[in-house]
Gliding motility-associated lipoprotein GldK
Amino acid sequence: MKRIFLLLLSASVASVSCSGGGTSSVGKPGTKGELIPREKTKSFVAERPYGMVAIPAGSFVAGLTDQDFTDSPEKAQAKTVTVSSFFMDEAETTNAEYRVFINYVRDSIARTLLAEAAGEGGEGKGRGTSIGDYAYLAQKEENLTPYQEYLEAQGGGDESTFDPTKKIDWKVPLHWNTSKYPDVEYAEVLESMYLPASSRVGNERILDVSKLKYTYRWGDMDIALAEKERGVNYLRSESIAIYPDTTVWVKDFHFAYNEPLFEQYFWHKAYKDYPVVGVTWDQARAYCNFRSKLKSDYNESLKRRKQRPLQFRLPTEVEWEYAARGGMQNATYPWGGPYLMDDRGCYLANFKPKRGDYMEDNKKGTYTYTAPVKKFKKNGYGLYDMAGNVSEWTESAYNNSSYGFSSTLNPSTKDKTDDKRSVRGGSWKDVGYMLMTGARDWERKDSARSYIGFRTVQDIPEAAVKPRKVNR
């Protein structure tokens, strides 16, 4: 009898676990005990970010295969390597694009200061008519969810971590015009972001750009490898002053009159489509993080949330060279040929044609310094200004022999102890040799120059199908 009872009991348990009301995560009901994932099998299509082009995966001969007139140690030995596919900005990051970053940080700081001053808020209508309208969202919500109550009970973290209870309200408009300040408390907060009257020239209200710091966290892979986990020690926090160094136009050229560019280049609307310069390697990386956050926040705001987007970053040195060649093997320049002019005698990039001659009778345009992006022909991948205009930061640490010891599969150098970073492409002040796809150069990552800018990339998953264009 006992044996019969046990058999009946085991049969009843099996029937419960296989019934439709069970909680098994193995698969859908009726899978007969087979392990069948619940996830849909729809193929993943990589969404092409706005302003970027897809660079297909491939192999190529990296390094300088043409004659080296300088015999410099920066020469890269020829080496066949393979590069995975990725998206890349079709043009260098412009002043207008970087100002979006500046304005976001400025507004974030202003809203945080206002929220702290607002405390528990007031009786405002949420239209920016009093400082109380700028209180943190958690202070405005009457019916908190259990999760929100839990977060409040836990208290806030340090400045380097995100505190969900201190989420700012972006829907309330900010007033930067002094005539529209809603109250005295608001004016006190906003004016604290400007230089004091004693430091102003001509009584002009100037934003204190030293306060524009972007704080973000990133993962240190070396720590993850050492500790064999991605715990709290894996994360690193940085607070970067992000405003470009506009004095580079004077510092880089001591015996030249470049004061108008110092005064106008970054903020004047005439230069909105010109490549941003005066940014360090760290500032360029902070911009990449901001762009990733911008897309991630948008995906989070959707009713039907999208998968978290892959991070934007700087290209590795080899990725940059691969993209610059435009799909052509042994291309001397991004346009393929060994000449700097086309068949009509027009220069194909913005560079310094001759000693003391930056314009060569205007055959390359009317650009004494930088040129607006996309003014010269794009290469085979659809990328503009991969030669000349401004040199570009890459993610890779610089080493004379890195092309020799790095991997043949997605080669990259990650020496954090060396502050040298690879810079590629040549600039408006360089001679034609520096525009060659295999020519190498470097700069210290904390340096800002009037001839160095950057562009960003985003990885494409190996399993993704052909990227599709985003409808705008």
In short: The domain at 42-94+246-472 is CATH 3.90.1580.10 (paralog of FGE (formylglycine-generating enzyme)). Residues 1-24 have pLDDT under 50 and may be disordered.
